[in-house]
Amino acid sequence: MSMILIWLLITVACYGAVIGTAALMTFAERKVSAAMQYRYGPNRVGPFGLLQPLADGVKFIFKEEVIPAGANPWIFKLAPILTALPAMLAIAVIPFTGVIGTFEGTEVLGSIANPEIGILYVLAVTGVGVYGAILGGWASNSKYSLLGGLRASAQMVSYELSLILAVLAVVATTGSLNLHEIVAGQSGWFGWNVFSQPLAFVLFLVCSYAETNRHPFDFAECEPELVGGFHTEYSSMKFAMFFIGEYTAMVVMACLTTTLFFGGYLVPFWADAPWWMGLIAFGAKTSFFLLLFIWVRWTLPRFRYDQLMHLGWKVLFPLALINIFVTGLVISFGPGAN
Amino acid sequence: MTKIILNGREVEADPKKPLIAACHANDAEVPHYCYHAGLTPVGSCRMCQVEVKQGEMPPRVVAACRTPVAEGMIVDTESPKAHETRRECLEFLLKNHPLDCPICDKAGECMLQDFTFDEGQAAARTDEPRRKLEKRKDLGDVIVLDQERCILCSRCVRFFDEVTGKMQLVIADRGAHSVVETFADRPLTGNYQGNVADLCPVGALTLKPFRFKARVWNLFKKASTCGECSRGCSITTEVLRGDEVKRFRPRYNADVNTWWMCDTGRFAFEHPNRADRLAGGQRRGYADSELISTEEALDQLADALGEHRAPVVIASPFLTVEEGAELLELCKQLGSEARFLSPAPNELGDEILHTGDPCPNRRGLTELGFAPVEAAEALELLAASKAALLVGERIGELVGTEGLAGLPTSLQLYVFDTNACLAPAAQLSIGVPDHTERLGTWVNVDGHRGKISAARSAPAGVRPLTSSLQTLRASIAGAEVTA
Amino acid sequence: MVVVERKELSFLERIYFPAILKGLKITMSKMFAPRFTRQYPEEPLPTNEVTRGQPRLAVNPDDTIRCVSCGLCEAACPAYAITIDGHETERFIEREPERFDIDMLRCILCGFCEEACPKDAIYMSNELELADFSRAALVYDIEKLKRPVSALQDRIDYVKKINDRWQTSSST
Ligand code: SF4
Ligand code: SF4
Ligand code: SF4
Ligand code: FES
Q1: What is the ipTM, given to two decimal places?
Q2: How far apart are CA B273 and CA B437, in angstroms?
Q3: pLDDT tens sequence across B383-393
Q4: CA-nearest residue of chain A to C29?
Q5: B343/B392 Cα distance (integer angstroms)
Q6: CATH number for the domain formed by residue range(s) B2-94
Q7: In this complex, do C23 and A299 lie within 8 Å of one another by their Cβ atoms?
Q8: Which of A161, A245, B34, B151 has the fewest CB atoms in 10 Å of its CB?
């Protein structure tokens, strides 16, 4: 009984943390971009404008819902859900911290669930995210939306491949699909995977930007060409869902980067740090990657679509293949091979 | 015909007319103020000077309005010397002109403005004070005189003398003290006063009813025909912002009215500007009167007329020939006799233009085969019948609103009018455009066919009478076929 | 035909990362640079006589309006924002506007009306703010447009100075 309570508590805390972070990200995005452009950014709502996300939310709720003529209403309504849901589902297995304690003989971990195939699960559910974009684009009955949806799907499919191969290298070095074990495998001096798998890290980072449709790969919404891409026709809460989906996906990707390459909740040089220290470490590392998302967005211009495809298939994919091949060689015949 | 050489081109000139007429007839513009083709030339303004060479004499600058044409005359309207002389004249004319164009109603159609723009120098060369005279001299019901603006061309004086035959204005005093005045400050009289406001080349004479009401460049102007009497003077209808009729002005037509029109016609925009126009149909229903669309009203009218044999049909005297022809067809279909309302002659008739017969298309309708009925007769006819159709602009008003109101309700009255008919007998009224809103022809008393044209659009929902009548005929015929 | 010679990129340039890092460095350094956004409602825009704000009608100290409804501004207005109807007055200047509407939503603040006015009656004020809940409320009628001459004095002097530059000594 009380086990269920604890589990519920963790669930609520994790979801609250991630979605809260996502909301905060929309605020941070505007603040950071403003700072980079000598501006103040939102500073009217609440102290330092901190209540801006709330105000935006209220605004979205009160906006008019428009379903364009000729749109397929059911799929049109389904698409935003399909975008937001996968990112939310992925949160379930992210290890926010290590063992919190033991309760009734069971170890309580810093994640909602701890399946053996954690990373596989993440890849599987986030892979569904592309449906939101393509269905939304198709159901809108608008050429811009359709083009945006097509681009999004092509881009995600292309980059997903390299992304998975990069993750595979990590999995290979760790020898486990369980996220907690992957974290645990990165302890010790220079134990972080980013040192053993630097190329995989770079590949993963680049692909994660493409996967979340962020600059410089935001082709799906590419304002100058496609108005708003697949969500051109969306308004009100449905648009907000796309927005939430996008930012949650970002948070999840940042969490994954931390987990896979930067030792997750491990605190450097403090092997037996308490669980809350782990949580802080995890938060700090993730925050950096979140900042990086914003930072990159306001620094780099958008690619051209052919460049995007060129990069994905002719550069990243071969590199990822080589990387996994070399990793395999090293594991099989290298110094630590059995 | 005399041959002259005008600006290097040999042209034919009418020897009975002054040189300026020949210039104007051949597209050579000569500025002028006192000359008017309808009045005797006097040569007082000296604006019309052109360079003329005749025979062996050296070329000299003469006033074109006072120079008869002579065979072989060589005329140059654009020579530097002519231009210089005209510019000097203009400078003198402007010496005492108040230059209050921003206030002046004439601005935009003022000859002083136009020719100053063409010839003049923009700046005055004197700082002397200008003449101070009466700026708002009331000359009766129609005209206000601004003596400061007057350039003493005497057109107005000659108009009353020559056209109306009764001299009412005069140039009093002499030299620099000259001013235009009426005799002993009596107000102007007569039905043609308005013409002097058109005649006045500057803004000295302005029309009271138009004073400061609109800027002339904002008026949309359309050639049309006056509907106040059977003369059918050619006019322009001038409409402000597609909405309100602001002026009627005479338009030159040698066969009908030459340059003039009477004040009755000039100020006849009270009716076109009525606010209570009927836009669509009005039917007597359970809740007294209900507004419906023209189409619906026509349907109901077709049904109603199908039930009656030979209703009384009375057309408005404002009906055009085209509408008359349509209505005649309808009368044949209904088996009715075609009649039109002939309003009683009024006191306004005179020798100049007004015929005294307020029926612009009497001749056209009579020729079509309509029989005239007086209002009293019409009411008797209506009272004696079971069903009646009144057709055309202002018909209710002309038959008599009170007379119609007194008709028994056993009569089924159907009305096509600009305004709804409120009589208890009126079952259905359908809106029609008035004569500033539709196209057509009126035949005047002498058989001249005058075009009327739409200077603005009818209220939304109103259909032209011809098209309404066609629809009506078609649906009545259709009902007969199916029955 | 234009032939664009592209520079052969070195390997370092081709892998693109050094350039990205350089870019990131630039943006990060700007984050801490001083900001110069104006905090608008608290810090209103400074206006001076050159500010071309919304047109306003000058009213003399004796409460008479300067405009004589000549319609020149109406004709000059490229946005068709102005509608004027005149009427007669008892004053020495016989004419004044009965209706003078400027549709502020149409007005593009070009100042043509000010330039066209022969009576020095319409001036571009320093009023810039424009907000309301309906379109109709933003069609300003004569009462909303009237401003005492004193409020417009700076602009009036400025316009006079500019106009004098174009005037020859001999003109009236
Ligand atoms: S009032 Fe007009 S028409 Fe009469 S003399 Fe003067 S300028 Fe000529
Ligand atoms: S500023 Fe320009 S647009 Fe505005 S009312 Fe004046 S003329 Fe028209
Ligand atoms: S131009 Fe000047 S005087 Fe003329 S209507 Fe406009 S504001 Fe009035
Ligand atoms: S027009 Fe010839 S002198 Fe006036």
Answers
A1: 0.80
A2: 12
A3: 888 888 999 99
A4: A36
A5: 14
A6: 3.10.20.740
A7: yes
A8: A161
